[in-house]
Amino acid sequence: MFKTFHNKSELLDTILVQQQSSSEVLRIVEKIISSVRDCGDEALIEYTQKFDHILLDSIKVDAPSIELENIALKNAIIQASKNIMAFHQKQMPKVFDHQQEDGTEVSFKWRPIKKVGVYVPGGNYPLMSTVLMNVIPAQVAGVDQIIVCTPPQTNGDIDPNILSVCQNLGIKDIFQVGGAQAIAAMTYGTETIPKVNKIVGPGNRYVAAAKQYVSNCVGIDMVAGPTELVIIVDESANPTFIAADLISQAEHDQDAFTLLLSTEKNIIKKTQSEINRLLKSLNTKATATESFLNNGFAFLANSIDECIEISNHIAPEHLSIQAKNVETLHNECIAGAIFLGQETPVVWGDYWAGPNHTLPTSGAAHYRGLLNVLDFLVPFSVTKGSVNQKSIQAIISLAEAEGLMGHVLSARLREGDILC
């Protein structure tokens, strides 16, 4: 089902093409953003009817009080929330005060962002876990106002599990708008949806392109597009586990990217067979199959080192290492999130472990990591100078060297030079 490569350059060239945003996507996104900026709610209603086939009576959701009847699900959400909360609380940065040798007092502090918009993918697979992963770190950071935008389901309503999680987290501003139009609404504001300071959350290629497009007007966490998974395996790996893990990401979206890097030809062959077998019983078979056909690849490598070299070139969103010596191998790897051993499927991180599942895609893991508390905090400094003649003279020397005589003037006045 997926395409197997034997030439490394051909594999990497193919992946590069797959990761690039098409000009058609950018053209559509630019038009949507312009319409929402100019026409506000009217454009949101129009695009929701066009893309989601729902005529909205109200953009804001008047969320009812929802009590989950599924006790097992309710308990799972509670425990997952605790795991996510505990992990993110550990990330809170420290402030510090320092006095320089001349008596200058300096401080390094943090303030939370005021308004944050969370995008939650919906439609066929409403991701209540994304609510947990994006809202909880914002709350830990102390964000004042958090809004949620998520597309309506085919029945015209927001998924009740998403509403329930929002309710449990105290989120009251929920808007049933998805896609690039939701990103535009949170960027510029409409009659109903408030303008925010930062937008976070994953989405499809249109959402990712929209976030990138508006990033000069509003803060964004990252360009988190369709999911990516690379699995590195040796002869010790279990083809059934590998197949299931690949399916778990391919079923998200027809644009999801999956790559198996193996030192064993037989593992690739058996994994292919297991994918075909396991898909037969899944309701997501059609999406996963199209994903594998579009963006599913395998490569027979000469060594685990070559597997790591290829994976690091890609810098995938998710990296699973199902091979010997995982405890040492992972230190050599570049990825948004790394999962060690065949007993740790990516779904462990999607829902449960605590680290965030909003992760960089399209190679962005080379320069940024998973969503975290610092994404919702802004650092700033506080300085209180001392009237120290040696310091003032040093500042004057530096300013004169740069030719900035206004800087020189400002410093000299502090030493009482009335001739300025």
User: What percent of the residues sit in helical stretches (DSSP H or I)?
Assistant: 40-55%
CATH level-3 fold name of the largest domain:
Rossmann fold
- Describe the largest sheet: 6 strands, parallel
Q: What would you say the CATH architecture of the largest domain is?
A: 3-Layer(aba) Sandwich
Please give the structural blueprint:
Layout: E1 3-5, H1 8-19, H2 23-39, H3 41-52, H4 71-89, E2 96-99, E3 105-112, E4 115-119, H5 128-141, E5 145-149, H6 160-169, E6 173-175, H7 179-188, E7 198-200, H8 205-214, E8 219-220, E9 228-233, H9 239-250, E10 257-262, H10 265-279, H11 285-295, E11 296-300, H12 304-314, E12 318-322, H13 326-329, E13 337-340, H14 346-351, E14 377-384, H15 389-402, H16 405-414
Parallel strand pairs: 1-11, 4-5, 4-7, 5-6, 7-8, 9-10, 9-12, 10-11, 12-13
Antiparallel strand pairs: 2-3, 3-14
Describe this structure in words.
The protein has 420 residues and is an alpha/beta fold. It folds into 3 domains: 3-21 and 226-366, Rossmann fold (3-Layer(aba) Sandwich), CATH 3.40.50; 40-76 and 106-221, Rossmann fold, CATH 3.40.50.1980; 387-420. It has 16 helices and 14 strands. It has helices at 8-19, 23-39, 41-52, 71-89, 128-141, 160-169, 179-188, 205-214, 239-250, 265-279, 285-295, 304-314, 326-329, 346-351, 389-402, 405-414, and strands at 3-5, 96-99, 105-112, 115-119, 145-149, 173-175, 198-200, 219-220, 228-233, 257-262, 296-300, 318-322, 337-340, 377-384. The strands form 3 sheets. The chain has a 6-stranded parallel sheet, sandwiched between helices. A 5-stranded parallel sheet has the order 6-5-4-7-8, sandwiched between helices. Strand 5, helix 6 and strand 6 form a beta-alpha-beta unit. The chain starts with a strand and ends in a 6-residue tail after the last helix.
